[in-house]
């Protein structure tokens, strides 16, 4: 049992406390402010800036891997011509959203929430946050976690043999040095995910040559950075009217692509292969370098705007090597095949570490909450944890699509509690026949390494984390709130 929070140092009470000032947190705050103008809320942000992921990552070429018609907020149209946007443009969009409605004034920067204790007697949370060398303690009626699931202070790097011998520079994308100069140098990017396929073409403009070294391939598809249909609709109808149409067009496209990948994987493989044959040099070894041993969308598919990765390969500025590392050497890498890769700079785009709810220790009436022993209710609340919600986005579509729906649901829930005079809501599982599954049923390595530390999902509704926006739209935005699972009390 964790020691009790020291209630004597409580500084204030907040109706809704949001943790995280990234894409999800700013969107949640906007909806709460619009729906409940008289309700107090605040955002605790551990870092010193708005933007979350989009402020943290500073590597060359950082961009979205979802179109901005769906990664953008439902309530604020994305007006730039580029649908696949770069990181600085997305960061500006999030910050502008916060500034224009005064949400930025509700953010407490440098407040890292370490623990939160629920008291049924008081029907509130007591939340403890580190602020520099001080500890800030507040109470809140509802705790809303929008911190995502990445660990912000460290990325994942495997234990490579011989790194101490390498005379060049080793860089992880999560901690990109501002003064890194790779002009005219040989660069090796280790990895094959979204970060790697972004870095390789972006660095190839200045580097002598960039090699993407991968253990195994990833499915990669090219899309236009500027969507001609979306931009045509904008010119015809204007931003406000065209945005929901373009948003639904892209939702429909991604849904059909995902469902087709699940049901007709051979057809999707054939389509991707033909597109790659057109984009790559004649006779390129697609089987080795771009054909994974799993089906499309068993892991997240990487998007390359305007085929920039394929173009860099075609122009000889970049190459792909599929092999395993034996050891780092003084001048680069020795591979299992026996070949050598020379390098001046090695970028370990080897993945992320996950951290559930920002590492916050939760207790309910003095009992520590063991996250793996909880069930996720509708993919956004925890069993036996009162007045608590969290945001986890889709793995097969834009994160913000789900974040918007969770914020909608939280607002509906708070309004319902106001109308009925309830002060407490808590999901409770009384069905012993429900079996559990990992929260994210996703084969990516960064998920598999840490998913056992997260809550679980169940085999039946409402304990399932859905990956269908259309289904969630019905259940979260329009479905009934009261059921046999969600318990209300005063």
TrEMBL record:
Family statement: Belongs to the FAD-binding monooxygenase family.
Name the keywords, alphabetized: FAD, Flavoprotein, Monooxygenase, Oxidoreductase
Q: What class of enzyme is it?
A: oxidoreductase
> Mind giving the lineage of the organism this protein is from?
Bacteria, Bacillati, Actinomycetota, Actinomycetes, Mycobacteriales
Q: What's the protein here called? A: Flavin-containing monooxygenase
Molecular functions per Gene Ontology = monooxygenase activity
Q: Which organism is it from?
A: Rhodococcus daqingensis
Q: What is its EC number?
A: 1.14.13.-
* Source superkingdom: Bacteria
- Cofactor(s) needed for function: FAD
**InterPro entries from the entry?**
FAD-binding_MO (IPR051820), FAD/NAD-bd_sf (IPR036188), Flavin_mOase-like (IPR020946)
């Amino acid at each position: 049992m964790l020691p009790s929070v020291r209630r004597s140092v409580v500084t204030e009470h907040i109706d809704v406390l949001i943790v995280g000032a990234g894409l999800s947190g700013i969107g949640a705050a906007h909806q709460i402010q619009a729906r409940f103008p008289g309700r107090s809320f605040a955002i605790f942000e551990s870092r010193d800036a708005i933007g979350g992921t989009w402020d943290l990552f500073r590597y060359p070429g950082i961009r979205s891997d979802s179109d901005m018609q769906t990664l953008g907020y439902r309530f604020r149209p994305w007006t730039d011509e580029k649908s696949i946007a770069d990181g600085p443009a997305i960061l500006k969009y999030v910050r502008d959203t916060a500034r224009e409605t005064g949400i930025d004034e509700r953010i407490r920067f440098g407040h890292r929430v370490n623990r939160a204790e629920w008291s049924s007697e008081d029907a509130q949370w007591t939340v403890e946050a580190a602020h520099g060398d001080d500890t800030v303690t507040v109470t809140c009626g509802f705790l809303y976690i929008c911190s995502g699931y990445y660990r912000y202070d460290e990325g994942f790097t495997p234990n490579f043999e011989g790194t101490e011998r390498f005379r060049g520079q080793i860089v992880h994308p999560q901690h990109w040095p501002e003064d890194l100069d790779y002009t005219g140098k040989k660069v090796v990017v280790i990895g094959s995910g979204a970060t790697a396929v972004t870095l390789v073409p972006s660095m190839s403009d200045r580097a002598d040559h960039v090699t993407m070294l991968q253990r195994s391939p990833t499915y990669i598809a090219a899309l236009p950075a500027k969507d001609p249909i979306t931009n045509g609709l904008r010119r015809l109808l204007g931003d406000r009217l065209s945005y929901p149409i373009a948003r639904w067009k892209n939702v429909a496209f991604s849904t059909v692509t995902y469902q087709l990948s699940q049901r007709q994987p051979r057809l999707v493989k054939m389509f991707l292969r033909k597109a790659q044959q057109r984009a790559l040099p004649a006779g390129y070894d697609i089987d080795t370098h771009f054909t994974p041993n799993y089906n499309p969308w068993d892991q997240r598919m990487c998007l390359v705007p305007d085929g920039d990765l394929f173009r860099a390969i075609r122009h000889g500025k970049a190459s792909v090597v599929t092999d395993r590392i034996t050891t780092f050497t003084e001048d680069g890498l020795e591979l299992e095949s026996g070949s050598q890769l020379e390098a001046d700079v090695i970028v370990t785009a080897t993945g992320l570490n996950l951290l559930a709810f920002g590492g916050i220790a939760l207790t309910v009436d003095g009992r520590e909450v063991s996250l793996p022993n909880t069930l996720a209710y509708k993919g956004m609340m925890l069993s036996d944890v009162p007045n608590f919600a969290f945001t986890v986005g889709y793995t097969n579509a834009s994160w913000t699509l789900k974040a918007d729906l969770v914020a909608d649901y939280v607002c509906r829930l708070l309004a319902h509690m106001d109308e009925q005079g309830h002060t407490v809501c808590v999901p409770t599982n009384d069905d012993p026949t429900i079996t559990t599954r990992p929260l994210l049923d996703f084969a990516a390595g960064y998920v598999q390494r840490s998913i056992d530390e997260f809550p679980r999902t169940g085999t039946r509704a409402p304990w399932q984390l859905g990956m269908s926006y259309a289904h969630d739209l019905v259940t979260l935005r329009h479905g009934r709130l009261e059921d046999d699972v969600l318990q209300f009390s005063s």
